[in-house]
Amino acid sequence: MAQTYDMTHGKVTPLILKFYFPLFFTSMLQQIYTVADTAIVGKGIGDNALAAVGNMSAITFLIFGFAMGLTNGFSVSIAQSFGAKQYEKLRHYIASAVCLAAGIAVLLTFLGTFFLKQILTLMQTDALIIQDSLTYGYILLGGMTATIAYNLCAAILRALGDSKTPFLAIIVSSVVNVTLDSLFVFVFKFGVAGAAIATLIAQVLSTFICLTKLLRIDVIHLEKQDFCSNRPYFMELLTNGIPMALMNSITAIGCIVIQFFVNGMGIPYASAYSACNKYINLFMQPACTAGYAASSFISQNYGAKQYRRIKEGLKVCMSIAAIGYLIFGTAMVFFPRQLALLMLNEEESIALAMQYLPISGLLLFAVDFLFVVRSAVQAMGHPTIPMISGIAEMAMRVIMVILLHDIFGFRATAIAEASAWVAAFLLNGIALHHYLRGLFKQHPHLPFWHKHTCDSAHANA
């Protein structure tokens, strides 16, 4: 029987760190090979190709982000039932999630490929790069099923406390992706199509590895009856999944608006914006991973009614996010030119990136803490506030870039991005405080603010 990881017992800090580090290395490897992919495109094909690939980032976030939010939402119910040891219910949740994910994959593939050209035109995509953007986008969106399959498999494994298998999958797929990327771009001269094909092959491989592990876990071995009479499970999964999916997509719309303004400035701006986004996505990974760890830990303990452990787990995950900010925020503020030179060729694009990175680095703490508090709210079964925060993010991006564009130029895009982080963090932070107070009021024997070390209380449980 393949191993699962019950996080409702044992010392909190070592338990979270044991879960966190494989997950962190998974996220970092994903981002590193994304950065490597970008660097290979930029250095191997040119800044125009880099702008074309970067131009697709907001669109892929819109579509893939919806799918990722959906599967992450599904994992909350899966983790809660696993924490409560309700294994029959767990199997019904997983079977229902598989059916829903398959349907969503077909729908998003059709919509994404059908409307891609219209969206790129609305974004003011320059004529010099639109064909490369279409080529790159059609290949990635055509492989949507593999992307959703990986996200679902990884989300289920995280819900069951397994962060090592996704790590193994990403190690293998990262090596394959970078190798094929270099081969297709530098040797076979496939252009941006080569980069997209390499990414898709790597995604299929990582899905296969995660799926192989899931099939070996006895407690979730699915039978025909697990797929029957699942309407209530569909509704419960969608209740958690849809708000989280919409949160990501609404946030992505704000990013598309910023991309619209950037594209209107010219290709050097689009290239610089693409490079900066890659660094932000890379440097927020310690906190993003802390959010995933918080989600799995809190979901399991919420299902098991181990409420004191929730507060202890939050402290650990927030500390991880703070350390990540101190390291990577500092790098963005003090070493922007060195970072820009790794991806960009033209001096104009490098100078623009040097305007953007310090502003984002200074306020990176907001998005880092946002990942943890938002995941905690979602894990406790409250997906509505995170969805509303997604609307607030979109509104802040749009409002700030419109108001400040003429005054600050390219810097306005960085200010708009950071403002969105701050707004979303405040909303989710206030909500988390409210929900925790309510939870501890329902259980007055549990202290809310007073120090309580639950590690020892559960070490031998």
Describe this structure in words.
The protein has 461 residues and is an all-alpha fold. It has one domain (12-456). It contains 18 helices and no strands. The protein has helices at 12-44, 47-55, 57-83, 87-122, 130-142, 144-159, 164-187, 192-214, 231-265, 267-283, 285-303, 307-334, 336-341, 347-362, 364-379, 384-408, 411-442, 454-458. Mean pLDDT is 87; it is low at 448-461.
Condensed summary:
The protein is mainly α and 461 residues long.
The DSSP helix count reads: 18
Extended strand count: 0
Q: What pattern of helices and strands is seen along the backbone?
A: HHHHHHHHHHHHHHHHHH
Low-confidence stretches: 448-461
Rg on CA atoms, Å: 22 Å
Mean pLDDT: 87
Domain module tally: 1
Strand content: under 5%
Report how far apart the termini are.
23 Å
Q: How many strands, which pairing sense, and closed or not: the largest β-sheet?
A: none
Shape: globular
Helical fraction: over 70%
Structural class: mainly alpha
